[in-house]
Amino acid sequence: MLGLIIAIAIIIAIMSMPEVLEPAAKFIIKSMGPYWVIAVFIIGVIHGLKPDEHTWPITISYGLMQRNIRGVIAAVTVFAGALTLVWTLMSALAGRLMGLLNTSLLDPYVDIIVGLTMIGVAAYLVFGNHGHTEEVKTADYKVIWVHGLAAAFGGDFFIVLILTIALVPLISPGLSFLVGLAFGVGSWIAQSVIVIAVYKGIVRSIKDWGTVAMAGRIALGVLGLFMITLGIVSLILPID
Question: Taking the domains of the chain in order of start, what are their residue ranges?
Fold first, then answer.
């Protein structure tokens, strides 16, 4: 029941997400001028703080499976590190090649692939007869890394691409990798704050790590179904 409540809360947050990123990003870029790296970093922080279908469902679910704050930070860092790696490489490439495809077309497929992976991992963790052991915590990091690599090609990939294309005329192409790097670091810091806050709040309320870990696994599966549904709806009813 706790896992279902957590999943529904995250889904509601995502579906009611205020669309503040784009106008805020434009304002920050215009205001910061030559301090564009700081501007991109701040935009990354905004990204990490807002409910996002490619961050919260994964980071919060895996965060709840950790035994302590150190494990939570490690889980978020692995995920955000994968995101940052992809975004850094993409922004570096975009600085050299300006005629890239509209990657927003990939969003539905990314949602479905990530959702299927989430359900598979959740089923393995719930029915795999692990018990609540330390092995459960450490075994998740490789999967979190894979999830991060996949999620990096969602809508946020397109945001980083837009920022890179907008900034390349103003900076040296050799510095374009800093766009994805700064965005990723900002997002990582903000995601860490969110997940730690959720983790502390739930653990203090429940006071039983085994129950919290199981809730994280169930939430991962439920949110995986949500991601698949979101992807299918996007394919059937594309938004112009």
Answer: 2-236
